[in-house]
């Protein structure tokens, strides 16, 4: 009898696993998220691991025209949104953030429909909402004050913003714990960690993108377009000249594309920075979420003005030995900083793409989504942007940031009348002590 029970238990477990696997595959098919397998037949080469130069000419050129056409459409749409100003760009960034999060989290949700897990996806999106409220709550409250939010509520949200954010997270955390099911502990905790990783990768980066934007549109456009240029030129050089694989985790990347994109991106960054620096619309920090800030004016920073840089005496003596007697050059500072950004975008940012390639290979999928023909999903287009926003923000705040009186005044004007009067009295007392009586 004991042996019979063991056999029956073993068979029941086996049948349960088979039934669960079948349900998982059916759920994945219904949700359109069935993994695309990359297991080549014996004696054949996996198409996804072929260099572009090794693909059949008809397929290569079909991909070329499809990719190029949709790239042109995306660039045209991006130019229109840039024209509409910071408000449109902010909305675009948040929408792209949500789509990227959806694509990342979906590859971990392939089997969730077959499991009896109530509130499973709702909890994940609640964590995203909480993260967005933490990052954008104060700014959006100031922007909507008096328009969609009354004055009293706005002051309450700003004052208690961090505490409200923490309480929201606790609500999501407690709900997650209460919904834990014994059979699915490992699955639920893995998805909990995957959700938080996606939030760190996507939501925090989008927050830095918007912060860069409000230092001046130039600090949004430069890093974004530099990455686009590097990606396009790497594809073009790889398409025409690629013969040497660069890294095994991303087989289509080549040394020819990597090196060609490096030099092309530096030239583009310098020229585009010179172009953008001519217009106050791009260099002046926006003072608010203005839809059409084309009348934006400010005192131009020395960053955007040509200046003369003199070489140190040591360099001058070395150059004189090879016949170079010029010791000073006309330089546009922002163009020099753009070159620094382009070097980072060419050498380090591609590793964000390699990381994304590793994730896709780990889950045996070709692309994060098929939304954009020839490109894949939104995350497939923004994988190299992962660290670019962080680097730009840190670089600007470390080497270029200067105290902005306009932003300080805006912060004071956002206070209530009592707080403004208190600041006025303290400032008047401080000036009375600092300035001798005349």
Q: What's the short story on this structure?
A:
It contains 17 helices and 4 strands. With 438 residues, it is mainly alpha-helical.
Report what the structure shows.
The chain has 438 residues and is mainly alpha-helical. Helices cover 66% and strands 4% of the residues. It contains 17 helices and four strands. The strands form two sheets. The chain has a two-stranded antiparallel ribbon. Strands 3-4 form a two-stranded antiparallel sheet. Helix 3 runs antiparallel to helix 7 and helix 8 runs antiparallel to helix 9. The protein is flat. The termini are far apart.
Strand order, largest beta sheet: 1-2
* Largest sheet: number of strands, sense, barrel closure: 2 strands, antiparallel
Proportion of beta-strand residues = under 5%
What is the count of β-strands? 4
As residue ranges, the low-confidence spans are: 26-46
Give the structural class.
mainly alpha
The total count of helices amounts to 17
Q: Give the radius of gyration.
A: 27 Å
Label the overall shape: flat
Helix content: 55-70%
Q: What is the terminal separation in angstroms? A: 108 Å
In N-to-C order, the SSE pattern is HHHHHHHHEEHHEHEHHHHHH
**Whole-number mean pLDDT:** 80
């Amino acid at each position: 009898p004991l042996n019979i029970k063991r056999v029956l238990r073993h068979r029941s477990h086996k049948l349960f696993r088979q039934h669960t696997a079948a349900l998982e595959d059916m759920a994945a098919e219904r949700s359109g998220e069935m993994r695309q397998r990359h297991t080549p037949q014996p004696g054949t080469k996996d198409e996804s691991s072929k260099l572009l130069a090794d693909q059949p000419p008809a397929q290569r050129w079909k991909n070329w025209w499809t990719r190029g056409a949709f790239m042109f459409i995306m660039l045209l749409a991006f130019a229109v949104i840039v024209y509409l100003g910071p408000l449109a760009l902010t909305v675009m960034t948040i929408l792209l953030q949500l789509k990227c999060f959806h694509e990342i989290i979906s590859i971990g949700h392939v089997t969730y429909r077959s499991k009896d897990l109530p509130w499973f996806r709702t909890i994940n999106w609640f964590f995203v909402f909480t993260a967005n409220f933490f990052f954008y709550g104060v700014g959006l409250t100031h922007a909507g004050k008096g328009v969609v939010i009354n004055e009293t509520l706005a002051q309450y949200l700003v004052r208690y913003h961090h505490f409200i954010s923490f309480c929201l997270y606790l609500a999501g955390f407690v709900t997650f714990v209460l919904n834990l099911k014994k059979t699915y502990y490992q699955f639920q905790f893995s998805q909990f960690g995957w959700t938080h990783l996606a939030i760190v990768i996507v939501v925090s980066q989008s927050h830095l993108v918007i912060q860069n934007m409000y230092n001046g549109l130039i600090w949004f456009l430069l890093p974004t377009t530099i990455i686009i240029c590097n990606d396009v030129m790497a594809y073009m050089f790889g398409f025409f000249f690629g013969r040497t694989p660069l890294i095994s985790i991303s087989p289509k990347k080549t040394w020819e594309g990597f090196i060609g994109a490096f030099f092309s991106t530096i030239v583009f960054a310098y020229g585009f920075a010179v172009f953008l620096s001519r217009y106050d619309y791009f260099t002046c920090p926006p003072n608010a979420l203005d839809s059409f800030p084309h009348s934006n004016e400010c005192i131009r920073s020395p960053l955007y003005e040509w200046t003369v840089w003199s070489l140190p005496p040591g360099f001058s003596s070395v150059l004189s030995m090879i016949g170079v007697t010029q010791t000073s050059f006309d330089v546009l500072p922002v163009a020099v900083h753009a070159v620094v950004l382009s070097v980072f975008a060419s050498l380090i940012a591609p590793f964000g793409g390699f990381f994304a390639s590793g994730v896709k290979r780990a889950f045996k999928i070709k692309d994060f989504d098929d939304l954009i023909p020839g490109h894949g999903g939104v995350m497939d287009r923004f994988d190299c942007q992962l660290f670019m926003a962080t680097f730009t923000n840190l670089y600007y705040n470390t080497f270029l940031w200067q105290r902005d009186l306009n932003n300080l005044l805006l912060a004071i004007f956002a206070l209530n009348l009592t707080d403004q009067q208190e600041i006025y009295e303290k400032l008047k007392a401080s000036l009375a002590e600092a300035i001798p009586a005349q």
